[in-house]
Write a structure and sequence with these properties.
Elements (H helix, E strand, L loop, with lengths): L1 E5 L6 H15 L3 E6 L13 E5 L13 H16 L3 E5 L1 H16 L7 E5 L2 H4 L8 H10 L2 E4 L2 H10 L6 E3 L15 H7 L5 E6 L8 H13 L4 E6 L5 H10 L6 E5 L4 H5 L4 E4 L8 H8 L4 E4 L4 H4 L6 E4 L4 H13 L1 H19 L1 H22 L1
Parallel strand pairs: 1-2, 1-4, 2-3, 4-5, 5-6, 6-7, 8-9, 8-11, 9-10, 11-12, 12-13
Helix pairs in contact: 2-3, 3-5, 8-9, 8-13, 11-14
Amino acid sequence: MKIGITCYPVYGGSGVVATELGKALAKRDHEIHFVSSSLPFRLAHMASNVFFHEVNVQSYPLFEYPPYTLTLTSKMVDISKHAGLDVLHMHYAIPHATSAVLARQILASEGISVPVITTLHGTDITLIGQDPSFAPVVKYSINESDGVTAVSSYLRQETYDHFDITRDIEVIPNFIDTERFHRFDKQHFKQALCPNGEKVIVHVSNFRPVKNATQVVEVFHRLRADDLPVKLLLVGDGPDRVPAEHKARELGVYDDVRFLGKQDPVEEILSIADVFLMPSGSETFGLAALEAMACNVPVVASDIGGLPELVRDGKDGFLCPLGDLDAFTARTRQLLTDEDLHAEMAETVRKRAVETFDVDHIVPQYEAYYERIREQRMAEV
């Protein structure tokens, strides 16, 4: 099958999942065409059946803002015609699904039928989509898609609750390659960072305010105030990195915190982690938490959104009320000090990642969905 995939190329869950999906499909002998404004973050190594098409937006004096949505539409039309695409798979409702729906209409006028599948990831529904400026476009783009998937049952319900959706939404969860994400022997790395045998807390995010990175620093400070020997590694970058750095200096823990920036081989960092901390204010799935789980790292996370579908409280880690730093601190301390509990959960989280969320379990669900939607589209045409 020839599949066109459009996603945001930035460091974040939707772009990572879309890129990994394309790479996994390519390994299963499909031809994949990525269409994006720049090379997706994890598309570093190309294969003979993986293509990247950059959307170049021309600047004209007439346009105060470059018309990316229309340029993307034209690129989709061009690639669909000349590569003979079987499916256009959009990750994020706007503007990707909007552009794809228009591209499908243009192609139909030339006798070419290409179904559009839209995968909803999160803020396209929970934040941006509910803005009155975008809501009608989001609703239209979802309803006009030939197929719609969501990464969690929570997100599917949020979509139904906030929009008048007439399409069925299929839940296909996020996934990871558990052969890549596993615990490596990185004792030399841990020894360098923790010369006195300290435990390690890791947080990975894009440092948007909703990720609550400053709360991670606050919890770490409380643990250090109890004389718990522990270090904190913060992976990623974004608008809240500077506030988190200021918070670490203000609380006097900066010397025990490492800001590592964006890291592609994040599994190597997770391999020295003892606890993964995720006090997010909104998560429709929690891909970063799943990556940690695959590396035998128990998770302490907010009890919100799609996280309860991933992290089973008391089995894979702990879920805490949103913003309850006392609970976050207590649960993290429990994992860092109870070796038997930690060992049990470390084994459980790895098993859950492999048995439920491995790429080989999830990607066939997408393949079957593509075939079903293609058949429906052909029947309608």
